[in-house]
């Protein structure tokens, strides 16, 4: 099964998202022509490959994220601070003990700071998910991360640097 | 790095060179420049007692004068240091470890947690005859696992003299975490008394090392809280068990100096990092008798391995490490400042301490030590008892009751320990739904009477997050997915007053033969702790898959902590033909009789 998610991030605080309904490689409602390039990502236990990327402001990217690990992962784009807020929230949701992932459904957007939202996708082991994202302008640096408790701390993050 | 007494002893040139490399930071600096995952096992070989790299290693065992905590001492040394050097092996290699005994008594080395042929396991009288004075024994075995382990003498009480060290095995494949730097932290408990005299003191005067006995002031405080009758009853109960409710540990800080990598808290051993680095700490409890609670104020730790086996990461503020257990944790210090690595003895009678810092010569605040816990309160928590209502206590059975001495337990029916059979009964009905065809619980399910969601005595779980056994979860199921064919139940038993420790009320000297495992059977081992102390139970030669309720993803361990009154179970695949040691890893408990041989045939 392929899960397709579109997220057009026009800035950190103004974000629009469309979850494409249905299964089986249904095409995004944004035509391929709007996508400048595709980056294939591997999400393993506990790493992302590649480890960092460079983007141009305004560029629209399709991330194809393959989970080659044994457990569920997520792929979230945001600034370091927003990622940390999201991480703390997920840790709190997991309760003090027990299943670290309880209550964390397959969300499409993660709460960021200032009420903003971060494009996010959750990927089950062996599956691939797409995320379409337009790099914002006037932003210095972002991160992609998996904020399932302990995953970021084990190494599941990378830097997004902006050219020019 | 580290004030290492290494250089004060006669050493070979090679050892000095290796020691120097361990103290330097050159290799670590280089590692920081490239993506850390490109070398996920990027080792820095930082260990203050030197490093012996495999696959061929030679170790010389001596008794010599080496100062410990600034005082004259005569520990057992391994290649001139005590505790011994770190041995570093690689998964997939064939290890050749030559151990030369320069003591005037037999010795041995057991490779704790390693799966290897029975003749290489290093237990005198079980795996081999031991190593006689002046002799060299060569251990040869294929290295088929990776992770953080340790080694120690399995002869008499030698381990108490510092005859132990870290054993690190680098992985053949990428591990499920990334890091930039690593440090090995070996916790030990040192006494300036001879171990034989410690044992004699325990035998002849129970409570010898307990300076935390309840005082008359405590008595009046109890009376204020609970009234005279309840207080008197409670006191009577503990007296009948031949225990003080403050017996958290039977050997304590009144004789022990708690050491980290061989250094006392005052010596402040320092582990270096650069701000922003992800650092792996390989924590080993190589002490004879002491459990520790480990924390780094100001830093979150993420537990990534237990007993050398990877687990799904668990962010925690603190973890308790039983004797002989190992935990790997990741930390990411973002600030260019010092942090205290604090390992507080479970009975709060002392602590080991080191500093994590970006430079030498720094120190951070040492946290205040916490109050000593009370066993009486723990016993009640164990059985879900909140209040002190001692009015009605129907149907006392001794099932969950801590039987230090069953014969002296009459009169317990008016105590505060009631209702435990009822609590267990409720647990049973809840579990019944998960029974398999043989009437046994499904593989991986937690036994009624287990307390995997509790860290244990002396922990106020409210304030911060403490690791518990329930958190430990493997990434993938272990290879043998069979349901257990058979259950083997063993009671952990003891008599504090006479300092006898045993399984099923039989000391090792009293049993007629070994415990028998059928070759290749899938077995459930159930351990029921009838005593009021923790026991770290260690099986040699085979893994124990701890049934902590994580189903297919239960973790596997070489040492299981069983809390007072607790019932713990593990699945075992009896695939290792031969004779193996099985014992409590509290050194004096093992010596007192809490030891069995397991024969697989």
TrEMBL record, chain A:
Name of a matching Pfam family: Copper-bind
Q: What is the lineage of its organism?
A: Bacteria, Pseudomonadati, Pseudomonadota, Gammaproteobacteria, Oceanospirillales
Q: Biased composition, Basic and acidic residues: where in the chain?
A: 98-113
Region listing for Disordered, in residue ranges: 94-113
Which residue range or ranges hold the Blue (type 1) copper domain?
40-161
Give the species this sequence originates from: Halomonas lysinitropha
List the GO molecular function terms.
copper ion binding; electron transfer activity
User: Which InterPro entries does this one have?
Assistant: BlueCu_1 (IPR000923), Cu-binding_ET (IPR050845), Cupredoxin (IPR008972)
Where does the source fall among the domains of life?
Bacteria
Q: What is this protein called?
A: Copper binding proteins, plastocyanin/azurin family
Instruction: Give the signal peptide, or none.
Output: 1-19
Q: Which UniProt keywords apply?
A: Copper, Metal-binding, Signal
TrEMBL record, chain B:
**Which UniProt keyword terms apply here?**
Copper, Metal-binding, Oxidoreductase
Q: Does the keyword Oxidoreductase apply?
A: yes
Coiled coil regions in record: none
**Molecular function via GO:** copper ion binding; oxidoreductase activity
GO cellular component terms, alphabetically, are: periplasmic space
Please name the CDD domains in this protein's record: CuRO_1_CopA (cd13848), CuRO_2_CopA (cd13874), CuRO_3_CopA (cd13896)
Q: Where is the Plastocyanin-like domain?
A: 64-172, 183-355, 482-600
Family annotation (PANTHER family):
FI03373P-RELATED, MULTI-COPPER OXIDASE
| Official protein name in the record | Copper resistance protein A
């Amino acid at each position: 099964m392929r899960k397709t998610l579109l997220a057009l991030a026009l800035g950190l605080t103004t974000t629009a998202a469309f979850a494409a309904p249905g299964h089986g490689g249904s095409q995004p409602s944004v035509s391929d022509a709007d996508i400048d390039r595709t980056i294939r990502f591997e999400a393993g236990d506990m790493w992302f490959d590649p480890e960092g990327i460079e983007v141009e402001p305004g560029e629209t990217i399709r991330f194809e994220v393959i989970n080659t690990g044994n457990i569920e992962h997520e792929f979230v784009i945001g600034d370091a601070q927003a990622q940390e807020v999201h991480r703390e929230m997920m840790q709190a949701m997991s309760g003090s003990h027990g299943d670290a992932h309880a209550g964390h459904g397959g969300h499409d957007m993660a709460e960021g700071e200032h009420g903003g939202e971060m494009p996010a996708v959750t990927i089950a082991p062996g599956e691939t998910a797409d995320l379409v994202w337009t790099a914002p302008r006037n932003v210095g640096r972002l991160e992609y991360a998996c904020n399932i408790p302990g995953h970021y701390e084990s190494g599941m993050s990378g830097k997004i640097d902006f050219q020019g | 790095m580290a004030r290492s007494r290494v250089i004060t002893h006669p050493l070979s040139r090679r050892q000095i060179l290796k020691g120097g490399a361990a103290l330097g930071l050159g290799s670590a600096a280089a590692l920081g420049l490239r993506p850390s995952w490109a070398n996920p096992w990027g080792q820095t070989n930082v260990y203050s007692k030197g490093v012996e790299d495999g696959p061929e290693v030679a170790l010389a065992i001596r008794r010599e004068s080496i100062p410990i905590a600034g005082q004259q001492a005569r520990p057992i040394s391994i290649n001139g240091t005590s505790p011994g050097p770190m041995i570093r092996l690689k998964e997939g290699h064939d290890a050749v470890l030559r151990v030369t005994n320069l003591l005037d008594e037999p010795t041995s080395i057991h490779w704790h947690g390693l799966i290897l042929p029975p003749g290489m396991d290093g237990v005198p009288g079980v795996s081999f005859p031991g190593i006689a004075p002046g002799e060299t024994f060569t251990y040869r075995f294929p290295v088929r696992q990776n992770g953080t382990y340790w080694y120690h003498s399995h002869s008499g009480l030698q381990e108490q003299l510092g005859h132990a060290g870290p054993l690190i095995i680098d992985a053949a494949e990428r591990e499920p975490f990334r890091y930039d730097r690593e440090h090995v932290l070996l916790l030990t408990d040192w006494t300036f008394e001879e171990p034989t005299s410690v044992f004699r003191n325990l035998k002849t005067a129970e409570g010898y090392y307990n300076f935390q006995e309840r005082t008359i002031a405590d008595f009046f405080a109890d009376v204020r809280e609970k009234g005279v009758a309840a207080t008197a009853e409670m006191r009577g109960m503990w007296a009948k068990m031949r225990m003080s409710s403050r017996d958290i540990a039977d050997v304590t800080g009144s004789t022990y100096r708690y050491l980290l990598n061989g250094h006392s808290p005052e010596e402040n051993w320092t582990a270096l990092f650069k701000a922003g680095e992800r650092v792996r700490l390989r924590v080993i409890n190589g002490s004879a008798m002491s459990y520790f609670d480990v924390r780094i104020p100001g830093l979150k730790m993420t537990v990534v391995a237990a007993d050398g086996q990877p687990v799904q990461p668990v962010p925690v503020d603190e973890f308790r490490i039983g004797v002989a257990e190992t935990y790997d944790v990741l930390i990411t210090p973002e600030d260019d400042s010092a942090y205290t690595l604090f390992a507080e003895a479970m009975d709060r009678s002392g602590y080991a301490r080191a500093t994590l810092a970006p430079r030498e010569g720094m120190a951070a605040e040492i946290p205040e030590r916490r109050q000593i816990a009370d066993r009486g309160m723990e016993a009640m928590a164990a059985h879900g008892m909140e209040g002190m209502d001692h009015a009605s206590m129907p149907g006392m059975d001794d099932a969950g009751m801590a039987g230090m001495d069953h014969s002296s337990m009459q009169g317990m029916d008016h105590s505060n320990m009631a209702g435990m059979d009822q609590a267990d009964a409720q647990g049973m009905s809840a579990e019944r739904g998960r029974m398999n065809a043989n009437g046994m619980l499904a593989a991986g399910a937690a036994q009624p009477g287990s307390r995997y969601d509790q860290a244990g005595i002396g922990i106020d779980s409210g304030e911060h997050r403490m690791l518990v056994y329930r958190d430990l979860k493997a990434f993938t199921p272990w290879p043998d997915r069979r349901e257990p064919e058979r259950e083997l139940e063993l009671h952990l038993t003891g008599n504090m007053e006479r300092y006898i420790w045993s399984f099923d009320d039989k000391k090792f000297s009293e049993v007629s033969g070994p415990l028998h495992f059928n070759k290749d059977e899938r077995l459930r081992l159930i351990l029921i702790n009838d005593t009021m102390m923790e026991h770290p139970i260690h099986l040699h030669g085979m893994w124990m898959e701890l049934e902590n309720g994580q189903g297919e993803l239960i973790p596997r361990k070489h040492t299981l902590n069983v809390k007072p009154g607790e019932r713990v179970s593990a699945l075992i695949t009896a695939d290792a033909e031969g004779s193996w040691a099985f014992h409590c890893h509290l050194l004096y408990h093992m010596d007192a009789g809490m030891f069995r041989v397991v024969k697989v045939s």
